[in-house]
Amino acid sequence: MKLAKRIAQLPAYLFADLDKKKQAAIARGMDVISLSIGDPDLPTPELIVRAAEKAVADPANHSYPAYAGSKAFREACAKWMERRFGHRFDADKEVLGLIGSKEGIAHLPLALVDPGDVVLCPQPGYPVYAIATRLVGGEVFEMPLLAKNGFLPDLDAIPTEVADKAKLLWINYPNNPTGAVAGLDFFERVVDFCRAHDIVLCSDNAYSEMCFDDYRAPSVFDVPGAREVAIEFHSMSKTYNMTGWRVGFLAGRADVVEPFRDLKSNLDSGPFSAVQVAAMEAMARGEALVPDLCEIYKGRRDVLVAGLRRAGFEPFVPQATFYVWMPVPGGDDQAFAGRLVDELGVIVTPGSGFGSAGAGYVRFSLTVDEARLEEAVKRIESLSA
Ligand SMILES: Cc1ncc(COP(=O)(O)O)c(C=O)c1O
């Protein structure tokens, strides 16, 4: 059988070697600590699970859901956007339910990108922006996120002829994998840039609620006029420990929502209705639990950062997300990550897995408890000794 060309061009799995090392460490009987997964270790809050149980038992939720998400769900999303950011959206025209934000990110290019069109993607970055572009024959123009620029893309470095061919520009602040955040001045510049070049600005705000130290992540819509330019993706996954439930939404430009909704009606049938009910409960009553969750991640961040500093490293201290980004001595992130698994049984993600500009860094996830993080840093300290 000959596979489709689009499959053949998928990038090679970068972590195969690291996976082998991990399996070998487990086989040697090592107590492996994984700091590589972007998946909360804590369970979905009880009240959300209870709401879902009731909804699952209700036959009204057993048939095909409304493609775009139920009206009640979309209204709940619009209300959440208004409560959280102070911006109103029309639940019919400007909100679309997604089967997790990844589903929306992966499918959007099918609606908006023709072969040869350019998509501006951050790198290091969430890999789906670039892969989804390539799957539809689009061309990826990479925007390096460099430490010297606070891990923000340098818009002036994008050639005008590239910008003029671009259909989409992806931003993601709070950022995976660097943990960087962006100020309103950056959002203003990127809105202006996209307006000037007629580009749909795609803001991936999956980590908007995972903030520490009194920091509150903005929405791209805080920029006046952004709603003519932008769409924003939100997710219940990280905010409410709901990664497995697969539910999120996008809000913004009606002229994007409408064709995207039409496209999606040919691809899927929206999130399971009972999951939508659970997400509504999360947005309404689960929200009160989010500050406690952020405190937990903040405590973990502080343990990890302090330990890494004691070991002589210089991690970036994130104000948001549950990731810690750190330059590695010598600059070989694959070798460094390999050494951590082989010698210490600690698994981290090499930055080069997020694009070449991520080379020289590793990403730690704060998705184990403080005691395990203490143990991980104790081992890392022994490495430097
Ligand atoms: C930056 C970013 N965007 C989007 C997603 C997708 O989240 P979900 O599909 O669970 O909503 C992730 C998941 O790790 C992510 O890191």
What does this structure look like?
- This protein is of the alpha/beta class.
- It has two domains: 5-30 and 289-384, Aspartate Aminotransferase, domain 1, CATH 3.90.1150; 47-285, Type I PLP-dependent aspartate aminotransferase-like (Major domain) (Aspartate Aminotransferase, domain 2), CATH 3.40.640.
- 40% of the residues lie in helices and 14% in strands.
- It contains 13 helices and twelve strands.
- It has helices at residues 5-8, 16-27, 46-57, 71-85, 101-112, 128-135, 160-165, 184-196, 254-264, 273-284, 290-310, 333-344, 370-384; strands at residues 33-34, 95-98, 118-123, 139-144, 166-171, 200-204, 230-235, 248-252, 323-327, 346-347, 349-350, 361-365.
- The strands form three sheets. Strands 2-8-7-6-5-3-4 form a seven-stranded mixed beta sheet, with helices on both faces. Strands 9-12-11 form a three-stranded antiparallel beta sheet. A two-stranded parallel sheet has the order 1-10.
- Helix 4 (71-85) runs parallel beside helix 10 and helix 11 packs parallel to helix 13.
- The longest helix is centred in the last third of the chain and has 21 residues, at 290-310.
- The N and C termini lie far apart (54 Å).
- The model has no long low-confidence stretch (mean pLDDT 95).
- Residues 38, 100-102, 126, 172, 176, 204, 206, 235, 237, 243, 248 line the site of pyridoxal-5'-phosphate.
